[in-house]
Amino acid sequence: MKTKKQIIVIVALASFVLLGVAAVKHPAPNTDRFKNLQVLPTNISEDSLDKIMDGFCASLNVDCKYCHVHDKKADSMIWHTDDKPEKEITRNMMRMTADINEKYFHFNEDVKASEVQAVTCYTCHHGNPMPEKAKGAKK
Ligand code: HEC
Ligand code: HEC
Question: Would you say 98 and 113 are in contact if contact means Cβ atoms under 8 Å apart?
Fold first, then answer.
């Protein structure tokens, strides 16, 4: 006999499948939540992506608008476009940071760019978009 909990899970899974089928008709290449991920896993959860983005903001001491376009007219953010050069620079920084971690810290393991890292953006940036600016800062 199935418990109530199991039934809820089954119903939830069934609706996932239905949503998946509905999404196939959409022109998007996959059923992923985000439209333009080139470095992060395309099936990343919203929660994980949020944490990474918050980490960028804290490491560089900037807000989301530093890398993402703010549509002033609509007063809303446009997340998927690459209009700001800072976003593409950041992709390269992500690749570099992942390379450093994989090559010099986690050389015996399989590590993905999205996982906890020994070297992070903060290691170099220390709350500055340009690391040089930290040179004169108090230790
Ligand atoms: C330092 C730059 C930077 C900052 C600051 C930043 N982001 Fe991002 N964001 C990126 C990059 C780079 C990507 C694309 C990653 C990739 O290609 O895998 C991205 C992707 C995203 C996406 C996915 C969009 C899509 O559909 O493809 C969302 C949503 C997002 N960011 C939200 C935020 C939010 C919310 C904030 C503020 C809390 C924020 N970002 C701050 C660089 C940044
Ligand atoms: C190993 C050190 C190091 C790490 C780690 C690092 N950066 Fe950088 N980053 C730099 C340096 C140095 C520059 C300045 C390059 C230059 O002078 O053009 C820079 C420049 C940038 C810029 C451009 C700033 C500007 O005003 O032009 C962005 C944006 C940036 N980094 C984001 C990030 C993010 C996000 C991460 C984490 C994923 C990261 N960086 C990790 C060293 C690092």
Answer: yes
Same domain as 23, residue 49: no
Spatial distance between the Cα atoms of 44 and 118, rounded to a whole number of angstroms: 21
pTM score: 0.81
By alpha-carbon position, which residue is closest to atom 35 of ligand 1?
Answer: 64
Both 74 and 8 in one domain: the answer is: no
Tell me the CA–centroid distance for residue 130 and ligand 2, in Å: 6
| Backbone phi, psi, residue 77, to 5° | -90, 145
Q: Does the C-beta of 90 come closer than 6 Å to ligand 2?
A: yes
In a domain, 124, yes or no: yes
Q: Is residue 139 part of a domain?
A: no
Reported as a single tens digit per residue, the pLDDT across 47-63 is 999 999 999 999 999 99
Residue 92 and residue 68 share a domain: yes
